[in-house]
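User: Please predict structures.

Assistant: First:
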Amino acid sequence: MTTTSERQQGHGGEQDWTPDPRRWRAFSVCLVAGFMSLLDVSIVNVALPSIREGLHASTSDLQWVVSGYALAFGLVLVPAGRLGDVRGRRTMFLTGLILFVVASAVCGFATGPLMLIVARLAQGVGGGILNPQVSGFVQELFRGKERGAAFGLLGATIGLSTAVGPLVGGLLIQLFGESSGWRAVFYVNVPIGIAAVVLALMWLPARSGERPSASLDPVGVALLGVGVTLLLPLVQERTWQGSTKWLLVPAGLAVLAVFAGWERRYERHGKEPMVALELFRTKSYGFGTAIGLVYFAGFTAIFFILALYLQTGRHYSALQAGLAVTPFALGSAAASALGGRVVHRFGRPLVAVGLAVVVVGLLATDLVLSRFTGSNVGWATALPLLVTGIGSGVVISPNITLTLSQVPVARAGSAGGVLQTGQRVGAAIGIAAVGSLFFNRLASSGGDWEQAVIAALRLCDVIVAVALAVALLDLRYGEREAAGSAAPAGQQDLRAHRRG
């Protein structure tokens, strides 16, 4: 398969770039693999009761089944992106995909909680390895309007995978029964993953991202891993009792500060750091990463509290709860695909408009929940959730496109890994904060589920409003440019890369 020239990979320029005739087929493989790995963030939630019964798992075991995947996923994103940039994106993509498929099979075969937890950790590592390669391939394979369209489809995939997880899980449990349905949640990845491996070998560029002379920055990898791991209380908030756990959070932030200092020192010595901190001096990247972190804190928590409210508070089945949030998924998918196609025309204002629509949609959902308390609440929230989903779709894919628009192709994997890590950390913070408010309000109100879910949704709305404020700051101080017009900026290589 023809691939982008070595000179283009090093500098991200336009003049010597020739479109790969099989780029869309290669991208379709990336979408399938990315969808599987992101789906597994949320699909397991509706299977937890079945896992508890089938494996006699404790509450702590179940927490690890969910948060262990997210933690492992987030830990490897940036190092894996860096490895893809310098040792080959296809190699890392296949490594992550194969690990993910094998771990999925082991999850489905698990005979006890410990076996399932270990397999879920391995599954998270596999997902974290392959995902930054996807954004790297988009940067490499596409330019201009095509890149916006590709990121639009990627944004639709992210939105869909997050939103339809409960629906797919509910369907599988409905089809295979309570005792075996949870195993099907994991087994379904195996045939799809095997097909994706075969197609990846056929269509992905063979030498994508290979730069053997580039350094791997092992100290930076270790510091970043320790810093993210020390944020563990954010994903173990419900089962890790005691207030001393929160001391790990400032410790983690301190380690991340040391990491930043190390990266600067590494660069001053003429080496290429794992994360080029100069990227954050580019306003499109700095603001975009901040928007992603804050927005995912509010966005992801919506599904967490709605699933709890509908299944436990309103006694919906897993399938019914999944169907109730389907309007959000449909709106998000459609708007993401459209947003990716028009982002080159409207630029950052499109993201701000999307965030404003999400705020309005959440306020409408809040209003509906305060008026409808019966079993028909799922139908009543369909329209406001559809509106919220449309707004979300106009946020996610355009923000990814604009955030990575000025990143050199040689840095695409690690830059995408940093962006996704911010989103994962944001999601963990949001679920911890919103979940804490939800359960505290539920306890203080004597089990009033409506009061608890409304309070939690309002906090989600506040968080999204903060993301909107960041987007407005970006409009005022940032570089107001569309994704397509930013492509030549890739020629402005980072000093670190020039030294590499």
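Second:
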Amino acid sequence: MAPVDIVRRSYDAFDRGDMDGVLGDMDAEIVWEQAQGLPHGGVYHGLDAVRTNIFDPLDEQWWDEFSARPAEFLEAGDQVVVLGRYTGVAKGTGKTLDVPFVHVWTLRGEKAVRFRQFLDTAGWVSALAP
């Protein structure tokens, strides 16, 4: 499978709410770089840390109707750049989220080994702030 197809499959799984499918495309030792400036920004190592610090809080603590919608996939060898938008409604404030993102995935074989996130952190933080 081509790297872009693996990354595309992961977004499709996320859209369906299939977290096992999302995580199944990631290496057990993935390095996940969440954008600085977010309340949970930083670098996470391994699937357990990513699930606990990134994916679980999305629905449990932060957002209703959250989505990460890719618009473009740009493949460059073992890297895939994804341009898209985050949308959602913040729990607790009811404010809407609608910000662009850039994700850079690095794959080895058929697994993602690194993820880098770039986005408008001010829009994200503002939606969550009371």
